Amino acid sequence: MIGQTVTHYHITRQLGAGGMGVVYEARDLRLDRTVALKFLPAELTDDPEAKTRFVHEAKAASALDHPNVCSIHEIDETDDGRLFIAMACYEGETLKARIARGPLPFAQVIDITRQVLQGLAKAHAQGIVHRDIKPANIFVTTDGLVKILDFGLAKLAGLTRRTRTGMVLGTVAYMSPEQARGGDVDHRTDLWSLGVVVFEMLTGKIPFEGDHEQAIIYSVLNREPVSVSASRPETTHAWQQLIDQVLVKDQRERFPSATAMESALRALSTGDELTSTQPIREPEPKEASVAVLPFQDMSHGQDQDYFCEGIAEELINGLARIEGLKVAARTSTFRFKGSGHDIHQIGHSLKVRTVLEGSVRKADERLRITAQLVDVVSGYQLWSAKFDRDLDDIFAIQDEIALAIVDKLKIKLLGQEKSRLMKRHTADRVAHNLYLKGLYFWNRRLEGGMKKAMDYFRQAIERDPGYALAYVGMADTYNITGLFGFSPPREAFTRAKAAAQKTLKIDDSIGEAHASLAFSAAFFDWDWPAAEKLFKRAFELNPGYATAHEWYAIHLFGMGRFDESIKEAERARELDPLSMIINTIVGIAYYFARRYEESIAQHRKALEMDPNFLLANTYIILPYVECGMFDDAIDIMRRAESLAADHTYTLGYFGGAYGRAGLEDEALRILARIDELAQERYISALHRANLLVGMGRIDEALTEMERAYADRCPVNSFSKTIPYFDCLQSNQRFQALLKKIGF
C-alpha cells in the first residue's frame, strides 16, 4: 500500500505488523500532519456486530484524552470495506524493541510503569479495560513519554476469534488466569498483564514460559513465577513483593486499582528506594478484628443451612456490641461461603486479623459443633473447641465461643458489655429456630423469600410474644416489601412501624429497631426530621450496623444532601465491603449527586462482584441515560431483562430508558408487561410513571405519579432530587405534587 492514497491519507512507509494489523506512516493531506494508520485484518471486522462493537469501543478510547494514551484521530474504512484507525505518530520505539536490547534499569522500570498506570487509571475510571497490555502495545517516545496503544482491539479479537475449546485468543504470555480460562475480566486483568511486562523489563524474560501456547496457559494457571532475583540478584524484597502481589492468580488479591499499584511504585522511588525492604502489600490491620464465616453443614441430611448461617449471624451481632473489636459484616463474610478461599485471602479481603470458622453436625436432638479461631497472618490456630451437646444447649455454646474470641483477642469487656454479649432475646429454642429460618430468607431479598421470612418471624412471635429480634425481622421485611411494591405501601409500612414499636417496648436498646422506624419515617411518613433523629439514635446504639448507614445514605440523597450521602454510603461499604446492595447504593449516591462517570464506575464495580445482581443492573441504566450512552444501557437491559421478569420497579426504568433512546416499540412492550402484571397483583403506579416519563408522555406520567402519591408510594421521597425527573422541574403539576409530599 506504500505510495497509495486512502481517503485523505497518503501512505509513505510501513512501520510494523502483527496479529492485530499492519501499521503505516502516512501524511494527512487535509491537516498536513504525519499520522499512523493501522489497518485491521479482515477476520476481525467481517462480522458486522463485532465491527459495530469495535467502533463503539474505539470511540470510548478516543475520548480518554490522557498524555499516556495514544491519541486516536478517527476511524474510517477503505472503498473495499477495510477498517483502519488514524492515530498520532510518535518518534521513538515500542517497549518490545527496548526490552530486546536487554533488561532495563530499576529507575527506568519505575518511570515507564508509573506512566502506564496513570493511563490505565484514566481508562479504568471510565470503565474501559485494555485486555492486551504487552510490550508491543507500549510505546516510548524519544523524550521518554509513554503511550498505551490499541485500546479496544483486544475486545474485538475476543468477540471474533476463538479456539475450538472456546478460549479467547490473545497474547497468551501476558494473559491473566481469568483470561486464560475464558472468564470475565476487569481492570485487574490489565494489572496482571502489566506485572508480566514489569517482570520482563527487569529480567528480559517472561515469568510464564512454555514450548507452545497451551503449555504457557498451563503455566499461567498452575505455576508460580520464578523469583526476579534469579536474574537480577540485586532485586530487593520490596520489588519481589510488588511482583508477587500483581501476579497473584486470584484477582481479588491483586492491587485493587492502578492508582494503588502506582502508590506502591512511588514508595520504591522515594528516599533510599532501591534498597528498601519494606513490604509493598497493604499492611495487615493492627486492631482487634474478626470475621465469622458461616458454619459448614456436616449433618447427614445437609438440611441445616439456615442453622449454620444463624449461628454465625448471632455471633456477629453479639461481637459487634464490643467496643474496640472490629467485626466484619454478615453480608461480606457470607460471600465466602463455600468459596474454597484460604484464610489469608479472606482476612486480606475483609481487612481482619482473625477468622472464625466451624461446622455443625445435627442428629436428632444432639449437636456436634466445632469452631476454630485462626490468625490470618501466621495461619496458626489461636483457639479451637468441640462441643457435643443437646440441642437445648445452643445458647450456651454461642456464649462460650464468643467469650473465647474476646479472651484470645485480649479484649477487656467494659461495663455492661459482657451482659450485652451474652444477652438472649428468647429462651424458647423452637422460637429461636424459627427466627433463624426467617433471617435465612430475609437475607436473600427476593419477593418469594420475603413472604417465607415473614411467615417464620410470625411463627417465632407466636411461640414467644416477647421475642424482640423477631419483631425487628418482621419490621424490616415489611419495610422492604413496601419499598419495592411487593405489597401496598400503606399496609406494609403500617405493619412495619407497629413491629418496630413493639420491639422498642420490649427493649429500647436495640439499634436495629430504631433504624427500622427511621426507614418508615423517611420513606412512608415523609417525616424527615423524625427520621434523622431515629437514624442518629440507631448509630449511637449500634455504630457498626452497616444497613442503618446504607438507609441513612438513601434518606440523605432524597434530601439533596449529596456530599453527606456519598460519605454515609462509603461508611456503609467500609463496614460491609462485599455487600452487593451497599456497593450499589454507593453508585446511586453518586448518580443523585450528578457525578455520572463516578456512578457508572461504582456500578461497574458492583457488577464485577455479581453480574446478575438486579438492582445494580437497574441503577447503572440511569447514569448511562443521563450521559447519552444509550448503547451501553441497551446492552445491559437486553442481558438483564430476564432477571427482571416480573420486577416492575426495574421494568419501569428499563422501559423509560428505551423511551429516552427512541426505541418506542421496546418501551411499549415493557409497558404492556407491567400492565399484565398489574392484573395479577399490586403494582405501584410510579413504575408506570417512570416509563411514561422516558417516553415523553408527561401528562400521563403525572397522572400516574398522583396515583402513586395517593398510595403513599415510598419512592416519592426522591422525586425532588432524582436526576431522572429533572425534565419535570418546570411543570406546575409536578411542583404541586412536590408540595403535597412536603418538599
Report on this model:
By secondary structure, this protein is of the alpha+beta class. It is built from 33 helices and 15 strands. Among the domains are: 5-88, Phosphorylase Kinase, domain 1; 92-275, Transferase(Phosphotransferase), domain 1; 289-424, TolB, N-terminal domain (Rossmann fold), CATH 3.40.50. The strands form 3 sheets. Strands 1-2-3-4-6-5 form a 6-stranded antiparallel β-sheet, with helices on one face. The chain is globular, with a radius of gyration of 29 Å.
Quick structural summary:
The chain is of the alpha+beta class. The protein has 33 helices and 15 strands.
Q: Key terms for this structure?
A:
Transferase(Phosphotransferase), domain 1; six-stranded antiparallel beta sheet; six-stranded mixed beta sheet; 33 helices
How are the secondary structure elements laid out?
Elements: E1 5-6, E2 9-18, E3 21-28, E4 33-39, H1 42-45, H2 48-62, E5 72-77, E6 83-88, E7 92-94, H3 95-99, H4 106-125, E8 138-141, E9 146-148, H5 153-160, H6 177-180, H7 187-203, H8 213-222, H9 237-246, H10 258-268, E10 289-292, E11 296-297, H11 305-319, E12 326-327, H12 330-334, H13 343-350, E13 354-363, E14 366-375, E15 381-390, H14 394-408, H15 417-421, H16 429-442, H17 447-463, H18 468-483, H19 489-506, H20 511-525, H21 528-541, H22 546-558, H23 562-575, H24 580-592, H25 596-609, H26 614-619, H27 621-626, H28 630-640, H29 648-660, H30 664-678, H31 685-695, H32 698-710, H33 732-741
Parallel strand pairs: 10-12, 10-13, 11-13
Antiparallel strand pairs: 1-2, 2-3, 3-4, 4-6, 5-6, 7-8, 8-9, 13-14, 14-15
